[in-house]
Design a protein that fits this description.
Length: about 325
């Protein structure tokens, strides 16, 4: 699938290069174009013919380009020219720069806010419940978009967003502090689940009933780990030893196989419940729903992020049991 949010979703290196290229005055697009043509043709003469200019002209462009960079870009020989070591490095950046400029032209000419690359992060809950449908919608409506996915816990996603390594994230814990735009998308119902054989008697369970059970949940940085800790604390019961797993899909499988009990989003186990593979435990107190947020750096994104968020809301509206969309404010 192709993905992207245009200039605002470029990698840090691409953005720095584009900015650097825009402010530099001592070399030009024509010089870079000549450099690319020679590196492809392996000959000053052939490159000049391709560009429709004279050989002295293309030689002058390269001389000025090399002077500006302070290095020789080509090694001349009887069989033609080849890139020097410095030329090979320069080629990577020049190609990347032209890719960025071409992306800008495509975006402005088509009016599509989603072209190029989009660095999208999602927590396990969103990834397993809504992400496939969101990617399908992006593919259908914005076929030139290239999505770079990162699936991680909410704490890690916040760090990557703050480090400008992600453009937009879907996560459980909303970023706190200025500089972010955050929108609540949906509340996800959560509960205790177990294999039928571990469900116990048909009564409401309390914290004491879980002390002799193997509990598996997400790592300490995950909201699920904290939720279980708070649940036992509310009952004034010491937190039992918790086993951890950093993959929600594996957690569901462990519960289905009878290896553990866990707190899971209801929407992730509807088919398992319908098949009778697992059961929902009646436990007191019940859990408050988790809220899934979309977040992005306010200065870095604009219409691009809103297009993605609107598609996510459409997907969430059709998510089914255990998911309640949050109405848009205003």
């Amino acid at each position: 699938m192709a993905t992207g949010s245009g200039a605002t979703a470029q990698s840090d290196g691409e953005w720095r290069f584009c900015h650097f290229f825009a402010i530099m005055k001592h070399y030009t697009v024509a010089q870079m174009e000549a450099f690319l043509a020679i590196s492809e043709a392996g000959s000053f003469r052939l490159a000049a013919d391709r560009l429709g200019i004279t050989q002295p002209s293309i030689s002058q462009r390269i001389k000025e380009f090399e002077s500006a960079l302070g290095c020789n870009l080509f090694v001349r020989g009887k069989g033609g020219v080849r890139l020097s070591e410095s030329g090979q490095i320069a080629l990577q950046y020049v190609q990347r720069g032209f890719d960025v400029l071409q992306e800008m032209e495509r975006r402005l000419s088509t009016g599509d806010p989603l072209t190029g690359s989009l660095r999208l992060g999602a927590s396990n809950t969103f990834a397993l419940s809504c992400l496939p449908a969101l990617l399908a919608a992006l593919e259908q409506r914005h076929p030139t978009l290239h999505v770079e996915l990162t699936i991680n816990n909410s704490a890690a996603l916040r760090q990557l967003l703050d480090a400008q390594k992600l453009d937009i994230v879907f996560l459980v814990d909303a970023p706190i502090g200025p500089g972010y735009t955050v929108e609540g998308l949906a509340s996800f119902e959560i509960a205790w689940f177990a294999h039928q054989a571990l469900s116990g008697k048909a009564r409401t369970l309390n914290a004491l009933d879980f002390l002799d059970r193997r509990i598996v949940t997400m790592p300490q940085s995950s909201p699920f780990h904290n939720i279980i800790g708070e649940w036992f604390a509310a009952a004034k019961i010491p937190l039992p030893a918790l086993n951890t797993c950093n993959d929600m899909a594996t957690l569901v499988r462990l519960v289905r196989m009878g290896a553990a009990v866990s707190v899971l989003p209801v929407c992730l186990v509807t088919s398992e419940l319908a098949a009778g593979n697992i059961v929902r435990l009646r436990a007191s107190p019940t859990f408050s729903p988790l809220t899934i947020y979309a977040a992005y750096r306010t200065k870095a994104q604009g219409r691009t992020s809103q297009v993605v968020i609107d598609l996510a809301r459409n997907v969430i509206a059709e998510a089914g049991d255990g998911v309640t969309p949050i109405a848009v404010r205003g």
